[in-house]
Amino acid sequence: MIHVGNCLDILPTLEAESVQTCITSPPYFGLRDYGVDGQLGLEATPAEFVSAMVAVFREVRRVLRDDGTLWLNLGDSYAGSGRGGMSGGGASTLQGGRDSQAQAPRSDREVSSAQRMHCPAVRGSRLPAGLHESQRQAGAIGRAWVPPPAGLKQKDLIGIPWRVAFALQEDGWYLRQDIIWHKPNPMPESVRDRCTKAHEYLFLLSKSPRYYFEADAIAEPVAESSVSRLAQPTLAQQAGSSRVPGKTNGNMKAVGGSETRNKRSVWSVPTVPFKEAHFATFPEKLIEPCVLGGSRPGDLVLDPFLGAGTTAVVAQRLARRWIGCELNPHYAEIARERLAGTSTGFPFGDAA
């Protein structure tokens, strides 16, 4: 079921301890404006964003079963970057002094190409339609340079994912793991003083110290190098003895004769295009292990930031029930259309 509205209004109406796992990706802090009043991610400071996230996931914890889990995807952003470098040109560290910081923001003619690509222009203006006037005036989105939030320097990596994770931990969640979503095909970045970012975080949190986690459902094939190594005779066997010393090049106790191994914490999943009008969508293959590892067939899966409905699509294909909240009615309709053609057992597609 899709509930259209603010998740902070909808979550309190859901039955306590009715959800097995929550898999979601909230709007990232200061990244883009989806054009709907009440959207999270447009807060003036990181602290306000973190506070909003804590409020949302406090309600999520209430509706989770005692053995439930939360899989939370969050990306990061930079302080004072404006998504486009300095008004005087590129984002060189040589231009990062106070004099350059005092420069006036660049004009609307210098809105980034990425913003133009994803947001249609307003008639009579070169600014994208998807940027709130209040955010433009505040300098949070769409300018070459904006003052960094208090406590941060210009060009600082804000560390939003970890700020949220530690705040949730302090609020009562068990922070169980930081999973790295490695993107083999990252978005190109016009930066010359750091590496291009090719990863995001996916945090695994739980309501209780003991929780449902089906490791076998998401196990990986043993690496060929491990198989080759395990096939080698031990030093004792080479010497003609049946005794296996404690340290040899023989069978490793943690692997044994199994053809699979415990899933690693770095998941290489390419980003995929999505033909509908939604800016940020999960790849289905990123969500599949979360659903398989965090729930059983028939369990209820929640996404309080449903967007284009990828969590629900994957849950439905894997014979789970699902429920989602979505603030933007247009995105909710996209999700409904996708789900109308989704049945249990269908293979996962490339578009998320």
UniProtKB/TrEMBL annotation:
<feature type="region of interest" description="Disordered">
    <location>
        <begin position="235"/>
        <end position="259"/>
    </location>
</feature>
<dbReference type="InterPro" id="IPR017985">
    <property type="entry name" value="MeTrfase_CN4_CS"/>
</dbReference>
<feature type="domain" description="DNA methylase N-4/N-6">
    <location>
        <begin position="19"/>
        <end position="336"/>
    </location>
</feature>
<dbReference type="InterPro" id="IPR029063">
    <property type="entry name" value="SAM-dependent_MTases_sf"/>
</dbReference>
<protein>
    <recommendedName>
        <fullName>Methyltransferase</fullName>
        <ecNumber>2.1.1.-</ecNumber>
    </recommendedName>
</protein>
<keyword id="KW-0489">Methyltransferase</keyword>
<dbReference type="Pfam" id="PF01555">
    <property type="entry name" value="N6_N4_Mtase"/>
</dbReference>
<feature type="compositionally biased region" description="Gly residues">
    <location>
        <begin position="82"/>
        <end position="91"/>
    </location>
</feature>
<dbReference type="InterPro" id="IPR002941">
    <property type="entry name" value="DNA_methylase_N4/N6"/>
</dbReference>
<keyword id="KW-0949">S-adenosyl-L-methionine</keyword>
<keyword id="KW-0680">Restriction system</keyword>
<comment type="similarity">
    <text>Belongs to the N(4)/N(6)-methyltransferase family. N(4) subfamily.</text>
</comment>
<feature type="region of interest" description="Disordered">
    <location>
        <begin position="82"/>
        <end position="117"/>
    </location>
</feature>
<dbReference type="InterPro" id="IPR001091">
    <property type="entry name" value="RM_Methyltransferase"/>
</dbReference>
<keyword id="KW-0808">Transferase</keyword>
<keyword id="KW-0238">DNA-binding</keyword>
